[in-house]
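General statements about sequence and structure are easier to judge against a single worked case. For one protein, we set the task of working out the structure tokens from the amino acid sequence alone. This step matters because it turns folding into a mapping between discrete strings. The amino acid sequence and the backbone structure tokens for this protein are reproduced below.
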Amino acid sequence: MNLPPIPTVPQVALPPQFVLPLEALATFWAIANIVLGFMYLLYGLKVFRVMTTITAALWGAAIGVFFAHLIDSVTVALIFGAAALGTAAWFYTRWMIALPLGLAAAALGWQTAELNGANPLAAFFISIAAAVAVGGPVLIFYRTVVIGLTCLQGAALIVIGSATGILLLRHKPIALLQNDLHTGAHLLLGSVCVLLMALPAFYFQRLRYAGTDETGEGEASSAKEATPRRKAA
């Protein structure tokens, strides 16, 4: 049986001005991680909404391309998917965070129940309970969850960017970073550094955004301003 040949990606020779050395890209990546990490640590509550919207728009574009065959237009599907999911993430950020976490907990609960020999009905109720147990607290304590997530993400980005910069300064291959993560050689040290930066940043953001709404903006100054003033008798 003769199989059709596997298509290959054509090799395109880029102009010299568009060719960047790997070290330059790694340096840019390290600096970007450190800068973004400090933004998460210091302004996590404000940055989180913007970054969530950008991420949702990218996912929407990918989903639109996947279902583009339904309308026979990749461009329209891409734009529609990005706009729909990005808009939903901007106006309903709380739900866009709680739903994926709840669905992930439901999937994990279902798999765990099946591995333990539970029947489908029991696995269904276990998955529902896991989704409520994870998604419910996210909805209730949304701001605290966001501050905690941004602090952990920011500290992790700083650690990864710093590790990449150290490898570049010591003229060692970047692949050592991935090997250390797999072997656990420096994983414990990195985890300790993440916690040492995330814990102070968490309390810093709690104090910084005290009395603000979940987007980091100021709440209504008082209830008196929200209600019409009574006329003097």
About this structure: The helical segments are 22-66, 74-91, 93-115, 120-140, 142-169, 175-183, 187-208, 223-226. Residues 6-12, 220-233 have pLDDT under 50 and may be disordered. The chain is about 75% helix and 0% strand.
